[in-house]
Amino acid sequence: MTPVTIYDIAKEANVSVATVSRVLNDTAPVRASTREKVMAVIEKHQFQPNALARSLIKKETGTIAIILPDITNPFFPEVFWGAENEARDKGYTFFLCNTGGDHERESQYLSILREKRVDGMIFLGGRINLQNCPEEMAQELIELGRHLPIVLVNGNLPRSGLHRIYTDEAKGAALAAEHLLELGHREFAFVGGLQKMATTMVKVRAIQKKLKEHGLELKKERILLGDFSIETGKQLMSQLLKQDTPPSAVVCVNDYTAIGAMKAAIEHGLSIPKDISIVGFDNTPLASAVIPELTTVSQNTYQLGKLAVDVLHDLINQNKTPKQVVLRPELIVRQSTGPSRIS
User: Fold this and answer.
1) Residue-wise DSSP of 122-169
2) For 6-58, CATH number?
3) Which residue among 7, 41, 154, 316 is the one 20 to 30 A from 222 at the CA level?
4) DSSP designation for 2
5) Dihedral-angle region of residue 17 (phi above 0 means left; psi in -120 to 50 means alpha; beta otherwise)
6) Is the pTM of this model over 0.90?
7) Which residues of 14-34 are buried (b: 16+ CB within 10 A; e: fewer)?
8) Which fold has domain 63-167+300-328?
9) From first to last of its 343 residues, what are the pLDDT tens digits of the chain?
């Protein structure tokens, strides 16, 4: 069966194609009787306008994209959930791109999204989290930003001029350290993450700074980096516990590594928090699902996604919007932290 077109609708309703377009898009007043006649024909044929054709007319697709590095890490689906709900309320659909942390795949998606004529893009992780992003990778995103509204979430490309939404992760790490200091801890360690990632090192530096204010030190041999997984958290914590003087408090790069660290501590016969206190980062659903429940730092993930869409919507509609929106982190105290047993 040949698909019904807008021209067929116009012919049967005995009106112009422009009138049918105005009814469909509600772009101009149409006499009530004419609108009813056009709508009757549309309903009769269950006509749905071609999305590509409408995009060519309106110069919009009603689609926005989100690029993220790891859909299996609970932090990113939480951000996506906030973004998707806000996008739906604003009439957008989403094009979800999971790169698996592969910069080449990021580049492929950037090319595809430009071809797909999406209205805007939200970018998380990957190259925008590198401490030193290679110039060619930075320029690729900056160039696309000249043609497409882009919002960076929890990342940055210095001197790019791109809009950013982010949680103050340094403040969050400092809150974790301050909490442990108040509990009497003096022997600290940091577990997880990668040295090349700014989101890792900003936490390390913030903890070092906070400890220095109290005349303490985050010793080099107690900064154990690897990646962001549960397994790595477990392995690194096992290494820590084999040291001559293990720490009494451990801050982890995220909740995944914290859960791995907790598993290792328990397997080594330690009681949490009696023998060792552990703090995560991100406040993912896993944090309250484990036993003991995990003390962690909330990055307001849902709000990050929601605000990213709000800013992107303003950019798409050429409205003024701040270049940067900074969210305050919150320490969520649960069962995995307690007073130090080391006097």
Assistant:
1) EEESGGGGBSS--HHHHHHHHHHHTTS-EEEES---TTS--EEEEE-H
2) 1.10.260.40
3) 154
4) P
5) alpha
6) no
7) ebeeebbbbbbeeeeebeeeb
8) Rossmann fold (3.40.50)
9) 577 777 888 888 998 877 887 787 666 688 888 888 988 988 888 876 654 444 444 455 688 999 999 998 889 999 999 999 998 888 888 889 999 989 999 999 998 888 888 889 999 999 999 999 999 999 999 999 988 999 999 999 988 889 999 999 999 999 999 999 999 999 999 999 999 999 999 999 999 999 999 999 999 999 999 999 999 999 999 999 999 889 999 999 999 999 999 999 999 999 999 999 999 999 999 999 999 999 999 999 999 999 999 999 999 988 989 999 999 999 999 999 999 986 5
The residue with tokens 């290494």 is 239
Neighbour tally for 235: CB within 10 Å:
18
* CATH (one of 3.40.50.2300, 1.10.3720.10, 3.30.70.260, 3.40.50.170) for 169-299: 3.40.50.2300
100, 141, 322, 328 alpha-carbon torsion, rounded to 10°: 30
